[in-house]
């Protein structure tokens, strides 16, 4: 494998190919499930019919002309890269962002890597006494993210391909309204799955309080934490005091503000509130109080902030 030639054929920086080669080395990968079994697995993973059809159409069968040697190498080595960090809970890009307009093999390469790791991470879950209900609910975030990416006309996936390696390594678990990430603290994430009511949040936190000591007793946690634009106190200028977001904010003691490296809070707000990064500000919808708050704040020349907060378990 010549890194420069492989990178050129993939249309990605050679540094990205070198990184995959360095981290994956000759470590074992994992096989994809049989294509005949794939529709049932995609259904369990909440993948919508349109996305499932594309994934099946691009399936890397041995004689597929879509799958060049470079693509097959990247699929095998990116799967090995993620598998090598099984049990990890830090951010882990599985490989370079690909030119996804070149077809389903390019568009869904990291989806195939995720599918190859489903049984691997479920075995990891079972080794820790975690039931199938939590496993499948957690892993079904794949379908949710593919649906969001479709709504965003492909603008969402470069972030999502790294986010989903947490699920494929046993680093994050969905219980009720929130997703909970292992680490120094239990990191909270808010998926697109309904109102963020105090009752739903309480139930999810209570589930996590029981879950982590039972399944990861060697990882003592004393705090929940969250890093998000949702914790920006500026939202209180626009939302009523009884708004779910404001009540969620009140749980946290905020750390002093520091400009986060690699995160543009204005972009992240648009990503999550509108699922749109390219529509002009004046044409964005204003149907909800949150949408109006975001647009009015940005239209006034102000910026949102990514804030980090914690509270005791």
Outline the structure in words.
By secondary structure, this protein is an alpha+beta fold. The protein has two domains: 1-170, no CATH class; 177-313, 3-Layer(aba) Sandwich (Aminopeptidase). Helices cover 47% and strands 8% of the residues. It is built from 14 helices and six strands. The chain has helices at 3-10, 14-24, 38-44, 49-57, 69-83, 104-107, 109-127, 132-139, 141-151, 157-168, 198-215, 244-249, 265-273, 289-299; strands spanning 172-175, 178-181, 186-189, 223-228, 253-254, 307-312. It has a six-stranded mixed sheet with strand order 1-2-3-4-6-5. Strand 2 and strand 3 form a beta hairpin. The longest helix has 19 residues, at 109-127.
């Amino acid at each position: 494998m010549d890194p420069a030639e492989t990178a050129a054929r993939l249309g990605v920086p050679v540094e990205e190919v070198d990184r995959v080669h360095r981290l994956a080395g000759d470590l074992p990968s994992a096989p994809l499930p049989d294509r005949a079994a794939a529709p049932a697995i995609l259904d369990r993973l909440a993948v919508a019919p349109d996305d499932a059809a594309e994934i099946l159409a691009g399936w890397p069968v041995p004689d597929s002309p879509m799958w060049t040697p470079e693509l097959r190498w990247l699929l095998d080595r990116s799967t090995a890269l993620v598998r090598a960090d099984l049990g990890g809970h830090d951010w882990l890009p599985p490989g370079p962002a690909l030119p996804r307009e070149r077809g389903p093999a390019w568009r869904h390469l990291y989806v195939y890597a995720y599918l190859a790791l489903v049984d691997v991470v479920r075995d990891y879950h079972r080794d820790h006494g975690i039931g199938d209900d939590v496993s499948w609910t957690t892993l079904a975030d794949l379908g949710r993210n593919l649906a969001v990416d479709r709504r965003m006309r492909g603008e969402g996936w470069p972030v999502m391909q790294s986010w989903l390696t947490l699920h494929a390594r046993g680093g994050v678990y969905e219980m009720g309204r929130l997703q909970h990430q292992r680490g120094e603290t239990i990191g909270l994430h808010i998926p697109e799955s309904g109102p963020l009511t105090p009752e739903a949040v309480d139930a999810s936190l209570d589930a996590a309080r029981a879950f982590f000591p039972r399944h990861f007793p060697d990882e003592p946690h004393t705090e929940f934490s969250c890093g998000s634009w949702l914790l920006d106190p500026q939202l209180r200028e626009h939302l009523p005091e009884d708004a779910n977001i404001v009540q969620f904010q009140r749980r946290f003691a905020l750390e002093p503000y520091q400009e986060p490296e690699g995160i543009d809070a204005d972009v992240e707000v648009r990503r999550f509130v509108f699922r749109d990064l390219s529509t002009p500000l004046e044409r964005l919808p204003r149907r909800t109080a949150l949408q109006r708050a975001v647009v009015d704040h940005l239209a006034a020349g102000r910026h949102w902030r990514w804030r980090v907060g914690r509270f005791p378990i």
